[in-house]
Write a structure and sequence with these properties.
single chain; alpha+beta; Phosphatase 2c, domain 1; Transferase(Phosphotransferase), domain 1; six-stranded antiparallel β-sheet; 14 helices
């Protein structure tokens, strides 16, 4: 992948020095860039911005080799946030004195990952269309003051927004502070970027810089390296404990067909999971091609959402190796108890973020369900890992019933292809089950042609569920696609903004449930009318 990078900045009128900072560097096959804007109302915002960009970019030089790029971005952002908070308390006696906004991207091959906090933003221009990739964390307060709702150094615990996108030759990626997006609206930025301007041209287009402005512009100048070709495949026969394959010793099978094994890597004793092609692939060319494609897909989708993947050296290959995550599946957890509300929220955010990552590759998972989710306990909170590269399918792939029937969206039974809305349905059924240990429409068999009427009410199955979360679950599993969340970001927004979730009712919900106040007002009016009538009749 060829890149051309330019940067430029401008100090706002009346400012002695800029509170913005930027840094970028190439490490082997990974290019990293970061832009930050010090919060002007704090004591050391400029220092925070300089420190944050430098630390994030420098940290990539020594990142653990087992960390995928998106995990490194998230871990480094969270780590830097904690360091800024600790330094602020030590030096100034309170958190927040060292705080800034941040946006950063890392590009490797044909993939770009990014994180952001605050109102420093990331845009991508492709074919004349400007797409915002970051999430704006700010609001206008009393007196038109600008309030950052999420940033680095403001509080010890922070959740950066993570995004990903597949890049192609001709793409232009702009990282800029609010000093750029304030005076230059989207139309103006689109026009400037469309003329192949560099960062200086964009900055010089700001006529009266009331705020510090910084732009870092990345142009993708040449196509990415081709994807790893599908490997030649050897399909072994029956597998047994103690056998050695691809530098691993098999320990015990993890699936009924004995094609997924827990193994120990011989060179260091680390436990890994080996996945072999199905036995029938020895005589079925279609199955061989599907498994070879699965190996390539698994390698391509390295991410914190999935276990890390290694393809053993050699040609042909017989299996691929996955990180062993010591934890139960969500299905095993649900055999003990439903998830608590906070756990359901965390699971929903994870599944939406993982699905958004796949969308950046024009893919869907295709089989979201509790069996394909591992649960890891970290302190008092649960973390999750998504399994099964074999189910991953292209967005808008030809219609099929691939997947597990109870999690397939109603329109897919009628021949509709995979889409964000069908995946939202799968997320919804998984969350519904996690919260209630029941299916919204009952369990559906593989060859059944189900009828979808009204889903069960989650709060009747789990009285601890808050009303807003019930509305989220029902909106996810709405039988009519246009009543559902239309994309993952809408679901994420509602999970993060409880007070803004609108009630949701199935079409046949009685009026008493939809609007009990209106019903009681009507009944009160009827009783009043009857009392008046009785009064006049007595006269």
């Amino acid at each position: 992948m060829g890149l051309h990078v330019t940067t430029a900045s401008l100090t706002g009128l009346g400012h002695r020095e800029s509170d913005d900072a930027s840094a970028h560097r190439q490490y082997g096959g990974i290019y990293v860039a970061a832009v930050a804007d010090g919060v002007g109302s704090v004591r050391a915002g400029r220092e925070a911005a300089i420190s944050a960009t430098k630390r994030l970019v420098d940290n990539f030089e020594t990142r653990p080799s087992s960390w995928p790029v998106d995990r490194a971005l998230l871990e480094f952002a969270v780590q830097i946030n904690r360091q800024l908070c600790e330094e602020a308390v030590h030096r100034y006696g309170s958190e927040g004195a060292l705080s800034c906004t941040l946006a950063a991207v890392a590009i490797s091959g044909d993939m770009m990952w990014g994180v952001n906090l605050g109102d420093t933003e990331v845009f991508l221009l492709r074919a004349g269309e400007l797409r915002p990739l970051s999430e704006r964390h700010s609001m206008t307060g009393p007196g038109e003051s600008h309030i950052i709702t999420r940033g680095l150094g403001l509080e010890p615990n922070v959740t950066p927004h993570l995004f990903s996108w597949r890049v192609v030759a001709g793409d232009r990626v702009l990282i800029c502070t609010d000093g750029v997006t304030g005076p230059l609206n989207r139309e103006r930025l689109t026009a400037l970027l469309g003329r192949h301007s560099d960062a200086s041209t964009i900055i010089n287009a700001i006529e009266r810089p009331e705020d510090d402005a910084t732009a870092l512009l990345i142009e993708i100048t040449s196509p990415p390296a081709d994807m790893i070709p599908a490997p030649a495949l050897m399909v072994p026969g029956a597998l047994q404990a103690g056998q050695e394959w691809s530098g691993h010793s098999l320990l015990n099978p993890l699936d009924p067909n004995e094609r997924v094994w827990l193994a120990r890597r011989l060179r260091d004793g680390v436990k890994r999971v080996l996945k072999f092609a199905p036995s029938d692939a020895r005589h079925d060319e279609r199955l061989r091609a599907m498994f070879s494609s699965e190996i390539s897909q698994a390698h391509r989708l390295q991410s914190a959402f999935f276990p890390s993947v290694e393809i053993p050296p050699g040609d042909p290959v017989c299996c691929y190796s996955l990180e062993y995550v010591a934890g139960p599946t969500l299905r095993e957890c649900l055999a003990q108890r439903p998830l608590a509300t906070e756990e359901v929220i965390a699971l929903g955010r994870f599944l939406a973020a993982a699905s958004q990552f796949l969308l950046g590759h024009d893919l869907v998972h295709g089989d979201l369900k509790p069996e394909n989710i591992l649960v890891r306990q970290r302190g008092t909170s649960a973390e999750f890992t998504l399994l099964d590269f074999g189910s991953v399918a292209p967005l808008f792939a030809p219609p099929s019933r691939a997947g597990t029937a109870s999690y397939i969206a109603p329109e897919r039974f009628q021949g509709a292809p995979h889409s964000e809305r069908t995946e939202v349905y799968g997320i919804g059924v998984t969350l519904f089950e996690a919260a209630t240990r029941a299916y919204p429409y009952g369990e559906i068999e593989r060859f059944q042609n189900p009828r979808f009427t009204s889903p069960r009410r989650p709060a009747r199955l789990n009285s601890a569920l808050p009303d807003w979360l019930e509305a989220v679950l029902l909106r996810c599993v709405a039988a009519e696609p246009d009543k559902r969340y239309q994309n993952y970001s809408q679901l994420t927004f509602d999970l993060e903004h409880h007070d803004q979730v609108e009630p949701f009712f199935a079409p046949d919900t009685p009026l008493l449930e939809r609007n009990p106040l209106l019903v009681w007002q009507f009944l009160a009016a009827v009783l009043a009318a009857l009392n008046l009538l009785q009064f006049f009749l007595r006269k």
